């Protein structure tokens, strides 16, 4: 369903960081089958770039072999990353997202990703200036604004992220490029309205889906309906 030809329907990316890994295949299959999401977001943490250790390509491979058909978005919080980038490309993931850091251009990594038919995104930590977005505008397919400090699920949304989303939205719109804007961290049913109102394209949601109840599809459905309602209000 497209609400308005000029506004893309906002997607929900399911962050599996807070999911129960013991029943992951079954739970993700149900969420994908519901048709309410088409993106699974993987937080790849190496206990070095961020102080937490999660999972790697093996988990993606297992989910693919289990039969999960969705767009896999790989949020890399690792250093070094090049070997992992190649492994994820090999698995056929849809998108790889890399953190912007002071003094690092990322141009080589972004080129490797795109030359291999994968989408490339850049990620901004809450304190990182958005200045480099203009420089990298021709090298990327998406921008992800972190609304928490990366490393853990279940943190509170940083309010200043609303201003940063609006700033990123305006840089993207002025560029005229087909670049998607996402937001990651602390999204819940209470702050959803003001986040959707920034014109964001992808909402990465983890603990608000996996920690609330055992019926993940039901809660995802509540998010979907509310997002559609808020987006509809934006155009009316
Ligand atoms: C934080 C991760 C997020 C996190 C979002 O480093 O990048 O993707 O899983 O989870 P919630 O929705 O719990 O903030
Ligand atoms: Zn993430």
Task: Please report the first level of CATH classification, the CATH class.
Answer: Alpha Beta
What's the helical proportion of residues?
25-40%
Task: Give the helix/strand class.
Answer: alpha/beta
Q: Mind telling me the C-alpha Rg? A: 17 Å
Task: Give the amount of beta strand, in percent.
Answer: 15-25%
- Examine the secondary-structure arrangement and name the CATH architecture: Alpha-Beta Barrel
Organism: Riesia pediculicola (strain USDA)
Protein name: Ribulose-phosphate 3-epimerase
EC number: 5.1.3.1
Catalytic activity: D-ribulose 5-phosphate = D-xylulose 5-phosphate
Descriptive account of the structure:
By secondary structure, the chain is α/β, with parallel strands linked by helices. The chain has a single domain, classed as Aldolase class I (TIM Barrel), CATH 3.20.20.70. It is 37% helix and 19% strand. It has 9 helices and 8 strands. The chain has an 8-stranded parallel barrel. Helix 5 links the parallel strand 5 and strand 6. The longest helix is centred in the C-terminal third of the chain and has 20 residues. The two termini are 16 Å apart. The structure holds D-xylitol-5-phosphate (DX5) and zinc ion. The site of zinc ion has 6 residues, from strand 2. D-xylitol-5-phosphate binds next to strand 2, strand 8 and helix 8.
């Amino acid at each position: 369903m497209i609400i308005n030809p000029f506004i893309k329907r906002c997607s929900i990316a399911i962050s599996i960081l807070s999911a129960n890994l013991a029943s992951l295949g079954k739970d993700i299959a149900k969420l994908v089958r519901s048709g309410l999401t088409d993106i699974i977001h993987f937080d790849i943490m190496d206990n070095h770039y961020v102080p937490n250790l999660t999972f790697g390509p093996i988990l993606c491979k297992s989910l693919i072999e289990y039969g999960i058909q969705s767009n896999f978005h790989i949020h890399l919080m690792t250093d070094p990353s090049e070997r992992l980038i190649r492994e994820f490309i090999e698995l056929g993931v849809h998108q790889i997202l890399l953190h912007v850091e002071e003094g690092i251009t990322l141009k080589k990594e972004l080129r490797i990703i795109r030359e291999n038919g994968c989408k490339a995104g850049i990620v901004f930590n809450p304190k990182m200036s958005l200045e480099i977005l203009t420089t990298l505008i021709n090298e990327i397919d998406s921008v992800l604004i972190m609304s928490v400090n990366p490393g853990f699920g279940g943190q509170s949304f940083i309010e200043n992220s609303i201003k940063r989303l609006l700033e990123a939205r305006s840089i993207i719109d002025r560029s005229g490029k087909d670049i998607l804007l996402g937001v990651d961290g602390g999204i819940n049913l209470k702050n959803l309205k003001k986040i959707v109102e920034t014109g964001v394209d992808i909402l990465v949601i983890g603990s608000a889906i996996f920690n609330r109840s055992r019926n993940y599809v039901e809660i995802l459905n509540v998010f979907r309906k509310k997002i559609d309602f808020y987006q509809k209000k934006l155009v009316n």
